[in-house]
Amino acid sequence: MHFFDEAMALRPLDDGSLEGTTSPAYWNMVGPYGGITAAVLLQAVWQHPQRLGEPLSITINYAVAVAEGRFRIRATPVQTNRSTQHWIVVQESTNAQGDTVVATTATVITAVRRNTWSASGSAVAPVAAAPQPPQTQPVMAALFADMQWRRQYETILLEGHLPLHWEGQESAEDRSLLWVRDVPPRPLDFPALLAMCDVFFPSILLRRATLAAFGTVTLTVYFHADATQLAAVGSDYLLGQSQGREYRNNYADDEARLWSRDGVLLATASQMLYYKQ
């Protein structure tokens, strides 16, 4: 079984909640990689027997790091309309003191998409200007080489390389551009697409060249593709672009976009990060 599918495995419990186990393959500094946490919350909705339609949006709020080991998720549909369904998802974990704590919360909207007029806006994919894989080589930044989750992605960085010297120099550049796919390659689905929305280096590292503590506080992802479009991507690379929007008083706002190789916008994301200094 692929490491991602192992991380997504959820077991139903008698009270209607789901139980899962953290994956060492997606471990970050003090807990699971934020993208895998988001994906498993979406998975709880995706496999729910009452689900209507496909994911339209998700907002994840990271309260505390998920502790290593077992966790419990409860996904509750709070309103079902003709075309949309609204969910609240809560993940509980056991901390070092043995207390049960709420680690993450999420709101999810699923929807039935209708065949209507459709067009692309100003978010044009820079596919034509991007060197095509495998003409470029995967990059593993030494700073993050010991983070297991980075080994689960083949990341080909085109723009947004980390600084060579961490001496606090400010830069006007804070944009990243990269190709990304699972290792080993795996057919794309909604949880995997969601997880990839969080693969980018935080733009504050590019902007400041300062090694300060940071972490995601909240992440929102909008899904523009349906299951048929994801199936068309298969296990191919996605082109991702991320850029910082504002850095102020301990918090930074990053936005990201993911396209298929043929330029179809699959998802957009926005996240607020905390940084220490």
TrEMBL record:
Pfam families linked to this entry:
4HBT_3, 4HBT_3C
Start and end residues of each Acyl-CoA thioesterase-like C-terminal domain: 137-274
What protein does this entry describe? Thioesterase-like superfamily protein
* Domain Acyl-CoA thioesterase-like N-terminal HotDog stretches: 24-108
